[in-house]
Amino acid sequence: MDKEGESEYIMAKVKLDVPRPTKEKVAKGQPIYPPIPDSEVLNCIDKVWQELGTDKFKNVKLAMPKIAENIKKACKEHYYRSNPKKLYNFYKQYLERMIT
Is the pTM of this model over 0.70? Predict the structure, then answer.
């Protein structure tokens, strides 16, 4: 310390890079749940494949309703928000992985 009581160190304040929160419209009294993780969606698709078998699973008309039903159950069980727009894309990815 100096005679005047000042320190020899330089003081600086570090500003953290914090992401800005996303704004979402909330219906009155409705909770906002986090979106369902991709791993959980793929897990539900895998369960449907095990139920139906490979031949029936490749039929979109049979597989997609069961996948949606399983994802709905998982969302209720774990308090997730489902994203129905991505379901078909996940189904296609799963089929491509099965073929190769």
Answer: no
Q: Give which of 81, 59, 60 is closest to 71, Cα–Cα.
A: 81
Copy the structure tokens of residue 86. Answer: 């991505």
Count of structural domains, the chain: 1
Q: Which residues of 65-82 are buried (b: 16+ CB within 10 A; e: fewer)?
A: ebbeebbeebbeeeebeb
Longest CA–CA span in the chain (Å) reads: 86
Q: Is residue 60 part of a domain?
A: yes
Structure tokens at 10: 């330089």
- For residue 59, give every residue at least 6 positions away whose Cβ sits within 8 Å of its Cβ, in sequence order, or none: none
Query: Is residue 29 in a domain?
Result: no
Q: Is residue 67 part of a domain?
A: yes
Count the Cβ atoms, other than its own, within 10 Å of residue 63: 20
pLDDT tens for residues 67-80? 999 999 999 999 99
- Give me 51's structure tokens: 């139920």
In a domain, 72, yes or no: yes
